[in-house]
Write a structure and sequence with these properties.
By secondary structure, this protein is an alpha/beta fold. It has two domains: 3-172 and 307-335, 3-Layer(aba) Sandwich (Rossmann fold); 175-305, Response regulator (Rossmann fold, 3-Layer(aba) Sandwich), CATH 3.40.50. 45% of the residues lie in helices and 17% in strands. The termini are far apart.
């Protein structure tokens, strides 16, 4: 069997379960264990500062981006835009090829795109780690060393990879964001009542956003989880699941949604059932569509990422690498959140938008 056919099979068939925290370093744990505190602090400062262009370099680097970006959430699209705008400011010559696929359900297509990137001697490959099938494939990329791998939307390195980690993990820590939402719901419900959870696909993101939410709520309140569904980050599946659960039981304090698309599906059904405002629902990420729903009073709460920082982080990491300063790039960059509630005043929300979308506000 050839190398690339073998890689496809590994990518499709390998089943590495994302089922317990022992598999991951948490952000603070990793930074401490590998003594990256100063490196991380300096990198964060660089991201917050204005760009500092490097001297003209004739070398054009090749970047391939494989994103699960075919969804309502604009997180992935804005990540790409902020990344490119910062690269341009940094005076880095590059060729960027991007592939946007549907989240969770186009694994085979993603594998083909990644293999194509490797064959074409890509300098930087930007991907994610969600479905369990991604892990072995990523190990093969890291072992080749020639292609630098950036994993987006994950901030918890796998312990099994030890020191042989990807070039950069970048994103917004899912467990931290979900804890903000859990604290909000526990406070709003006085720690009592029923709730439901709509996960995305079975994998890393649903575990960190959903399972960790449930564990935290169970440990710290008397709230009772009565329904849970996996809906593949798909709005239509979220609509169907919400209709199903409301037929069974409408005695719910809230429906916890693990993504933008899911939240918008829940809202649609709550409007149909005249339950909007009676059963609370959250967003996750604070992208443009969620903020519109906050402003219209349809969405109760969201945890808003300072979105463009992750694109800036990727660009600054590439710059340091090109300058031969790869040791100044921490293994993880985890961005900041802000909790945004229904009823927020316009001035405060505008300031958050300006901060979060500093490169993509009008895109």
């Amino acid at each position: 069997m050839g190398l690339f056919k073998g890689l496809i099979l590994l990518f499709i068939l390998t089943n590495v379960a994302f089922s317990n925290d022992a598999k991951y370093y948490q952000y603070d744990e990793y930074i401490s264990a590998f003594n990256q505190g100063n490196v991380s602090d300096n990198f964060i400062k660089t991201i917050q500062e204005d760009s500092k262009a490097i001297k003209q370099n004739d070398k054009k680097i090749k970047i391939v981006m494989v994103y699960p970006g075919n969804q309502i959430s604009d997180y992935w699209r804005k990540s790409k835009l902020s990344f490119e705008k910062r690269l341009n400011e940094l005076n880095i010559k590059y060729e960027l090829v991007d592939f946007f696929t549907k989240p969770a359900i186009e694994i085979k297509e993603q594998s083909k795109l990644l293999l194509k990137a490797i064959k074409n001697n890509t300098d930087y490959l930007i991907f994610t780690l969600d479905a369990s099938k991604h892990a072995k494939f990523i190990e093969r990329i890291v072992s080749k060393k020639k292609t630098k791998l950036i994993l987006q939307n994950i901030t918890t390195p796998l312990k099994k990879w030890k020191k042989r980690q990807p070039f950069l993990y970048v994103g917004f820590d899912h467990a931290i964001g979900s804890k903000f939402l859990a604290d909000y719901y526990m406070n709003e419900t006085n720690n009592k009542g029923n709730y439901a959870v709509l996960y995305g696909a079975k994998g890393y993101v649903s575990y960190m956003r959903g399972t960790k939410f449930v564990e935290y709520v169970s440990k710290n309140s008397k709230l009772k989880l009565v329904h849970e569904y996996y809906v593949d980050f798909n709005k239509e599946k979220a609509i169907k699941a919400t209709r199903d659960l409301l037929k069974i039981n409408k005695d719910l304090k809230f429906i916890y949604a693990c993504s933008t698309d899911i939240a918008l599906g829940v809202i649609e059904v709550l409007k149909e059932e005249n339950l909007l405002g009676k059963i609370k629902v959250n967003g996750w990420g604070g992208g443009s569509n969620e903020l519109k729903a906050i402003e219209s009073g349809e969405l109760d709460i969201t945890v808003m990422r300072m979105n463009d920082d992750n694109g800036v982080a990727m660009a600054e990491a590439v710059k340091l690498d090109l300058l031969g300063k790869g040791k100044e790039v921490p293994t993880i960059y985890s961005g900041e959140f802000s909790l945004v509630k229904k009823g927020i005043n316009k001035e405060e929300l505008d300031a958050l938008k300006k901060r979060a979308f500093r490169y993509t506000l009008n895109d």
